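Q: Predict the assembly, please.
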Amino acid sequence: MRPAPERRRELLEVAAEVFAAQGYDATTVRRIADAAGLLAGSLYYHFDSKESMLDEILSGFLDDLWSRYDAVLAAGLGPRETLEALVTASFREIDRHRAAVAIYQKESGQLRDQPRFGYLAEAQLRLERAWLRTLESGAASGDFRTDLDVRLTYRFVRDTVWVAASWYRPGGRHSPEETARQYLSMVLDGVALRDRHRRTNKE
Amino acid sequence: MRPAPERRRELLEVAAEVFAAQGYDATTVRRIADAAGLLAGSLYYHFDSKESMLDEILSGFLDDLWSRYDAVLAAGLGPRETLEALVTASFREIDRHRAAVAIYQKESGQLRDQPRFGYLAEAQLRLERAWLRTLESGAASGDFRTDLDVRLTYRFVRDTVWVAASWYRPGGRHSPEETARQYLSMVLDGVALRDRHRRTNKE
DNA sequence: CTCCTTCCCTAACAAGTGTTTGGTAGGTTA
DNA sequence: TAACCTACCAAACACTTGTTAGGGAAGGAG
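A: Predicted assembly structure:
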């Protein structure tokens, strides 16, 4: 009597990988079964629909993400440190849930209208609020520039981070922490050369 | 005897809009027909397959994009001016071909393996080369920082620009030129406050 | 041994898919 | 007038889709 949840997680990982590579709608349930080494109908012993698999993948990822974000936001750091911590946490999440993040990026737009996936819209709103608060308090405290549209800045930071899931490969040249450091350096200081940059790359 | 190509372009625009909103695979040919005000079978008088529509949309967009990029690259500008011109051209392209760009972003990954869409892979390669050359010569000339991984910088710039297609709406608050200016300001100088930024926002 | 549970297979289902075929209303040309 | 072309409709086609029902092999429990 093996522990069932293990097999379940195995299958979900396979499904996530295929969803991320082919897109949710383009992925047939038979293809997931092929990749997992069983037949299409057998998947329905573990899950009650293709949509349930997607649901479980996405909500699992979001739960994980929020537990990390909430920890950062509750730490009471300064705006700049909060931004750094959020970005770093995001890249760690991409490292762990690469497929789920890619799916979220691709399909979230068309899914959030569906009642079952309403939590995607809520999550996006919570995310936006958290980021806007951080950016605004950073502008007030003198950490960030004040001549930029805050909402534009938010989208800029958000997108630059999360699109990375489309090309990032775990175990590649850069660790999530190093990728985060370089991204933060670009987002905060820009790519143009200024006198400081010669050796100010704070470690 | 009205000019046929006009109707053709009309239908392609409708199709592009639906593809962008729902995703290519999730879009049924009947839904396109609905949105265009005719029946599914009638589409096959104008196009010989659903795939052909997608092909025409994407290659049309890429042709347009390259004609603009080539003009910029042939102008012999300095690295920083080239980067600024490329980014501005990109946002103008997003303004004109928003739906096509969104489709390209979403589906290009799964399409480029298909022989018919091989030109997508070629285009991506040409784009990467053009950008890398610009970034490298900018690092050599002292315009850009040298302590960043060039390929990472490339992906950073590329992504930040093109993802904008997922939220940008023509006729919104910001014109493509103004959006480009703000993005360039963030990419080049960063979002962190430095002494200069109080009033150095050139113009 | 028998019973039961877990996990999978075989085989089929109804619904929806992209596409084709034949026809036709209405305008243009001769 | 008749012949023709454009742009569409109506109806069906073969196929794929997600999903279900019934059965069976393997192994632990009594």
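Chain A touches chain B through 45 residues (CB under 8 Å). The two ends of chain A are 52 Å apart (CA to CA).
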